[in-house]
Amino acid sequence: MWQDAPLFPESASTISDSVDQLYAFLVVVSLFFAFGIATVVVFFAVRYRRRQGVIPARIHGSVQLEVVWSLIPLGLSLVMFFWGAKLYFATLDPPPGAMDVYVTGKQWMWKVQHPTGQREINSLHVPVNRPVRLTMTSEDVIHDFYVPAFRTKRDVVPGRYTIAWFEATKVGEYHLFCAEYCGTKHSEMIGSITVMEQHDYERWLTGVAAGETPQEAGARLFESMRCNTCHSGQDGARGPTLTGAFGKPVQLRDGRVVPFDEDYTRESILNPGAAVVAGFDSIMPTYEGQLSEDQLMQLLAYVKSLGAEGGDQ
Ligand code: CUA
Questions:
Q1: 102 contacts 120 by C-beta, under 8 angstroms
Q2: Which of 159, 178, 211 is the last residue of a domain?
Q3: Residue 197's pLDDT is what?
Q4: Which pLDDT score, from 0 to 100, does residue 309 have?
Q5: Tell me, what's the pLDDT at 119?
Q6: Same domain, yes or no: 81 and 154
Q7: What pTM does this model have?
Q8: Whether residue 149 is found in the same domain as residue 18
Q9: Mean pLDDT per segment of 10 residues, for the chain of length 313 residues?
Q10: Do the Cβ atoms of 185 and 161 come closer than 8 Å?
Q11: Does 191 fall in a domain?
């Protein structure tokens, strides 16, 4: 829908049409009431203008009217709320089997890494009809990853991970923008998303030097930073085992239960005392300042792969 309307960007993802439909509903409702109210204002102004010798009858309120003009807007706003919330959650929750792409924003560029290790700057190549899950963070200030054609827009925040996903439905090249003012060259923080047929994508991958995958680099770091001495996975180890852990709830020493997700992984590396797993002592040192955002992403990729190993994730 709307492909021919110049005001609308192309619709090229599985959710873009649903976003447009909600948007159209909001516009129609707003226009209906804006014109309706304006018309009535003008009509009343003319109809009840002051005239010599005419004194209009007084009105002392009407419960029926009050109820009607309260219930109709209430119903409409609830429709907007639930419709919007449903779409919002759909855009947060990647379908299983999505391809993991890591995105780092910095003043003023987008750095991405493919699950197979290839890196790109200000461009991202993806296969068509395949869900892509973005794990994003920033090296400096808040940025925002915005692909109008996919109706995908999510803040990229320093110090934490945000997740976004999309599934492109049309081969082509699309704009990538930063949608959060982030400094002098904010307007130059742009790039392109190239959507390719699966076999073209595979050919593209082979043409780009891959190096290590994030997972392999993470595994190497896990050893070189000596994480494996405590998180050995053996009985009586000083740290909890990470096999099968990612994606599941963790019981903490202070009684809380938190999800073992991207942010928990990050916090546990940088501020290990904040959420200690039940049955363990707070003996892990912080790695704050010792790891770059890239390395943190790599460790995360490795910890995630360990989680998938031991479970149904
Ligand atoms: Cu990054 Cu604006």
A1: no
A2: 211
A3: 92
A4: 61
A5: 86
A6: yes
A7: 0.74
A8: yes
A9: 67 90 94 95 90 80 90 94 93 86 92 87 92 92 93 91 92 92 92 92 82 82 81 79 83 86 85 82 79 84 77 41
A10: no
A11: yes
| CB of residue 143 inside a 6 A radius of ligand 1 | yes
Q: Which of 143, 141, 167, 145 is nearest to 154 (CA)?
A: 145
- Nearest-atom number in ligand 1 for the CA of 142 is 1
Residue 48 forms part of a structural domain? no
> What local confidence, expressed as pLDDT, does residue 313 receive?
37
CB of 183 shorter than 6 A to ligand 1: no
CATH code of the domain containing 280: 1.10.760.10
Same domain, 141 and 17: yes
| 256 phi/psi in degrees, rounded to 5 | -70, 155
Alpha helices in the chain (DSSP H): 16-47, 63-92, 198-206, 214-224, 227-230, 262-270, 293-309
Q: List the Cα angle 143/119/123 in 5-degree steps.
A: 55
Q: Which of 159, 181, 211 is the last residue of a domain?
A: 211
Domain that holds residue 191: 8-38+65-211
- The answer to whether position 301 is within a domain reads yes
- Cβ atoms of 213 and 116 within 8 Å: the answer is yes
**Number of domains present in the structure of the chain:** 2
Contact 152, 13 (CB under 8 A): yes
Distance 186 CA to ligand 1 centre (A): 4
242 found inside a domain:
yes
Ligand 1 pocket check for 182: Cβ under 6 Å:
yes
